[in-house]
């Protein structure tokens, strides 16, 4: 900075007049010819190096510590039992997630309705299922047969059934898991969806009403797409939570990924390698969902942003393109002043 | 940028009863505070009425009662003899189901101060959404209608722009086109230029001026005194929920009767 000031104060005007005679304003130097020197962040660099060292050390230990048992990991990663467990984990997530969010939407709409009955029933549902631990819920659903041995249709408030089922056969392990997970999920997603709906401007409702749009069109076409922007980050949080949360159903001996892992390591005592198997699978699921989240959010951002940000692929392509263009440019710029100009311009892009 | 008569001509069926608004003895209060007090006003079909008054005088509330966005405590509002919220059978008024209210509402278009365009829909989609949802037009026809209306408000080149990509004046013109898509008998404007930069006000007023020539009943709440004087057939002055003055612009602006009107006009003119 001081260099520029000195030059500006003394040397610049005379130098300018000799080198570039076409300059009109002789008092202000032509900054395009200067090279920009960025601030140097020494402390940032030191800490960056430290963190990098710790990360590398950890990765090195992963590779060299044979207690991680990577060969065992490799044998079991695609083992049929594990794949079957994954099938169940994903199945539970899809079913519980779908039921949870559909029921949650209904609960949210009920909570926002003007009917005091719908409103308070919805509130109580949410209150109850958020209050009772999921673990307890699963055990209760699994043991429902103890409370109500038979379920069916009959004369209200009596024990006379026209048509009934044995509870134990009706509520299997899988059904108990689905019930517990989806009702719990519904309670949480109801609040997320309600929050999203509340975030939509009141004027949107008025405009939709003034246009005479029927209620289902208002909800599905006007309100929910706008609420989606507020709902989605939390909804993906919930789904990612759910996919790992399914591991809790191992308490009712349902053979999902985590339960299968436990069964195997109880047999062969390879605890860490098998836990790593399930951890890596969970990481894969979460990664896929995170990528999906980016694109889904991007879809619902249309209209909310003036310019939708590029996808990582588009950004990478644009970066390669500019780098490529720079490579092309360099030999074709022999004139020093022109080269300096491109350098300054190039920093921005 | 003229709104040609073609749009209106194919819809005019009974020109004599098109857009008669009758407001009778309307009162409304929020939490004990009177917003509207025994308001009576008849707006003739095709008439252009400008409602003036200080902030909080109840002029927006009055406008919103006309299409039942706001319910009234006493009195009633009819459009072409139809109550928007109720149906008369004998000596009883039956509150209408929402579906029926919505249908009647489509006779009354509203243009809001803050545009209230749907931000996730493009300009053309904003206009086409209601005719499609109400089953009046197929998707392709609605799109064509939208393009035609956009051309009429001078935005033929913006059908696929999202509201946030448009200026305030352009957004308000899309909002006017959206209100026109249902071919309403009455158009309500709730301070249509109050949220706009001064230099964008003109383009919106131009569109409203063109509408005024078409014979749709227009009721405009505005602060643009000059515009009201130019375009309105009658001026209504409201203060504290009372209509203090009704009359042609020359009379109301030239020789206001009520001292409150004189005071208000003295401050804004």
TrEMBL record, chain A:
Localization (cell): Cell membrane
UniProt xrefs under Pfam families: BPD_transp_1 (PF00528)
ABC transmembrane type-1 domain span: 86-293
InterPro entries linked to this entry: AA_ABC_transptr_permease_3TM, ArtM/GltK/GlnP/TcyL/YhdX-like, MetI-like, MetI-like_sf
Domain of life of the native organism: Bacteria
Keyword Transport: yes
CDD domains in the cross-refs: TM_PBP2
UniProt membrane topology term: Multi-pass membrane protein
Parts of the chain that traverse the membrane: 42-62, 82-109, 121-142, 239-259, 271-296
Keywords: Amino-acid transport, Cell membrane, Membrane, Transmembrane, Transmembrane helix, Transport
Ranges for region Disordered: 329-349
Family that this chain belongs to: Belongs to the binding-protein-dependent transport system permease family.
PANTHER family with a match to the protein in the record: L-CYSTINE TRANSPORT SYSTEM PERMEASE PROTEIN TCYL (PTHR30614:SF0), MEMBRANE COMPONENT OF AMINO ACID ABC TRANSPORTER (PTHR30614)
Protein name (record): Amino acid ABC transporter permease
